[in-house]
Specification:
The protein is of the alpha+beta class and 378 residues long. The protein folds into 2 domains: 244 residues, P-loop containing nucleotide triphosphate hydrolases (Rossmann fold, 3-Layer(aba) Sandwich); 106 residues, Beta Barrel (OB fold (Dihydrolipoamide Acetyltransferase, E2P)), CATH 2.40.50.140. Helix content is 25%, strand content 32%. The protein is built from 9 helices and 20 strands. A 6-stranded mixed sheet has the order 6-7-8-3-9-10, with helices on both faces. The protein has a 5-stranded antiparallel sheet with strand order 13-12-11-14-20. Strands 15-19-16-17-18 form a 5-stranded antiparallel sheet, with no helix packed on it. Helix 2 crosses helix 3, helix 2 runs parallel beside helix 4 and helix 3 packs across helix 4. The longest helix has 18 residues. The protein is globular and about 75 Å long. 34% of the residues are buried.
Length: 378
């Protein structure tokens, strides 16, 4: 990771009427980094992106670019381009003309425009599509045009607001790899917004998990997945068993009627905790020689594994296995200490319900796009 901080958000708060959308956000984004803002609908991730892009002004706080305060600076004056949820391509222009649009506004000489557009078409694998109308393109091809148009002006930062949402699963996965390739080849900063956990883990150098206007955890994909800071993050990043537990002392926890060793310490004696275990971390064995045993209630084939719900009598557990176990079968379950994650219990006002703040679901409507285009012409 680069140590050079490109964008800094300092004490950013946004309030719409009586709704607090962002609550004192502090975040640094480094040069040439692929950062993903991840969270449920209404968590504040799109609002954060729009603040960086200049489409929303913070109620409080400041945003810095290369150490210079750009709070209140209009979008067209920022070295930042955006790929919107709806690609905002001009239907009356062909592929070449769509990509060329920003260059013409910036008065880039014709020969330079031709050179850059050729480079962009090759970058997004659309060479030979120059004269195609937008209506003649697939969704994936339209997205590539939008990315080429955003990159052709050589921005320092590219903002992407759930650009893969309209694509089918196979194409979506292909474009995840393509976007990462483009980011590495262009060597610019990508700031990506999604609610798709797999997408975030696949593409990112760093993941920012958000909920209810706050940053809950900031780290690498492996850190976020393997060491979630609380039960909400654990439940949102992948699937987890979140179980009621009691810490008897350092390195000893009780859950599901069993007292087992763990690797966590620093909790109070008899403190109630959340015990988090990933479904893939269970070892399957003989019921008579395992820490737990239970009856398989259901099993679903997921392609690379079977997802089983197992009733132990104390809890219903999600267990991933590579071998099929038919409903009604009794199986044994064991877990090693390193895979038992102990966390403070969530407060009463915290919830796994993925609440939605209306303001964060706002996307750029047609009048926003017209205002943006007109600002480019000024």
């Amino acid at each position: 990771m680069q140590n050079n901080i490109l964008i800094s958000l300092r004490d950013i708060s946004v309030q719409f009427d009586d709704d607090l959308i962002l609550d004192g956000i502090n975040l640094d984004i480094h040069d040439k980094e692929f950062v993903t803002l991840l969270g449920p609908s209404g968590c504040g991730k799109t609002t954060t992106l729009r603040i960086i892009g200049g489409f929303v002004d913070p109620t409080e706080g400041n945003i810095f670019f290369d150490g210079k305060d750009m709070t209140g600076m209009p979008p067209y004056k920022r070295p930042i381009n955006t790929v919107f949820q709806r690609y905002a391509l001009f239907p009356h222009l062909n592929v070449y003309e769509n990509i060329e649009f920003g260059l013409k506004i910036s008065n880039v000489p014709k020969e330079e425009r031709k050179k850059r557009i050729k480079e962009m078409l090759e970058l997004v694998n659309l060479k030979g599509f120059e004269l195609r109308r937008i209506a003649q393109l697939s969704g994936g091809q339209q997205q590539r045009v939008a990315i080429a148009r955003a990159l052709v002006n050589h921005p320092r930062v590219l903002l992407l607001d759930e650009p893969l949402g309209a694509l089918d699963l196979k194409l979506r996965k292909e474009m995840q790899i393509e976007l990462k390739r483009i980011q590495q080849q262009m060597k610019i900063t990508f700031l990506y917004v999604t609610h798709d956990q797999e997408e975030a883990l696949t593409m990112s150098d760093r993941v920012i998990v958000m909920n209810e206007g706050k940053i809950l955890q900031n780290g690498s994909p492996t850190d976020i997945y393997n060491e979630p800071i609380n039960a909400f993050v654990a439940d949102f990043i992948g699937e987890s068993n979140i179980l009621d537990g009691t810490m008897h002392e350092d390195f000893v926890v009780e859950f599901c009627g069993k007292t087992l060793p763990c690797v966590d310490k620093g909790f109070g004696k008899k403190q109630l905790v959340d015990v988090v275990i990933r479904p893939e971390d269970w070892d399957i064995g003989d019921p008579g020689n395992s820490q737990f045993s239970g009856i398989v209630e259901s099993t679903v084939f997921k392609g690379v594994h079977f997802e089983n719900i197992v009733d132990t009598g104390e809890e219903r557990l999600m267990v991933h296995t590579t071998q099929q176990h038919n409903p009604g079968t009794r199986i044994g379950l064991s877990i090693i200490p390193e895979y038992i994650h102990i966390m403070n219990k969530m407060d009463d006002d915290e919830s796994f319900a993925l609440t939605a703040l209306e303001a964060d679901s706002i996307i750029l409507e047609d009048d926003d796009l017209e205002n943006y285009a007109s600002s480019e012409l000024e």
